[in-house]
Write a structure and sequence with these properties.
Layout: E1 6-11, H1 16-28, E2 33-38, H2 62-69, E3 83-84, E4 87-88, H3 150-163, H4 170-173
Parallel strand pairs: 1-2
Antiparallel strand pairs: 3-4
Length: 189
């Protein structure tokens, strides 16, 4: 099927359906493809969880998962809290990889040429497409016009939590499919 060797990077999957799909794709592309997997799209890296590497002992129910993981998060990174919910906690089951070191303010060198240009905000025309691509127009049928950036994110937080108090009805509305206010719209996917 392929004459040249290809590299295929993919998120490592856990659930049975995705694992079956992955196996079918690997079987169809068995020769000539170098596979590389990485862990992504989750709050925790699986190596940091207090479960077996295969995650075979990870609870299927969120509350049980939360009850196993939450006590491990009641402290700063790489520390074991003395207690959790008034119960002694002498050890940690989380396998947290070392954090980056705390750097002193100003300890990193400036890039060659100084700081000019570090505040650059690219426009659509600045994106490195191999050939010109028209900027997508806003869909008038869309419920929200998504904008990137910290200011837009903070505005959405302020709207959802403070101005409208929509957060108070999140559990009742989170699985609806229409409108701009049925879910937080905090995640990019």
């Amino acid at each position: 099927m392929f004459r040249a060797r290809l590299n295929r990077d993919s998120d490592e999957e856990v659930t049975s359906e995705e694992l079956r799909t992955d196996a079918r794709v690997r079987g169809a592309l068995a020769s000539g493809v170098a596979w590389e997997y990485c862990w992504g799209s989750t709050l925790f890296h699986k190596d940091d969880l207090p479960f077996k590497r295969s995650l075979a002992d990870m609870p299927d129910v969120y509350t049980q998962f939360k009850n196993r993981v939450e006590p491990e998060l009641a402290c700063k990174a790489n520390e074991v809290p003395a207690s959790f919910n008034d119960a002694p906690k002498p050890t940690s089951n989380m396998k947290v990889r070392p954090c980056l070191p705390d750097l002193a303010s100003g300890s990193l060198p400036f890039p060659e040429g100084g700081v000019e240009g570090l505040d650059f905000q690219p426009a659509w025309k600045d994106l490195p497409y191999p050939e010109p691509v028209d900027q997508p127009a806003h869909n008038p049928d869309g419920v929200l016009e998504f904008q990137g950036g910290e200011d837009a994110g903070l505005e959405r937080l302020n709207y959802y939590i403070h101005r409208t108090n929509l957060v108070s009805t999140y559990f009742e509305t989170r699985n609806q499919m229409l409108g701009g206010d049925y879910s937080t719209k905090f995640a990019p996917r």
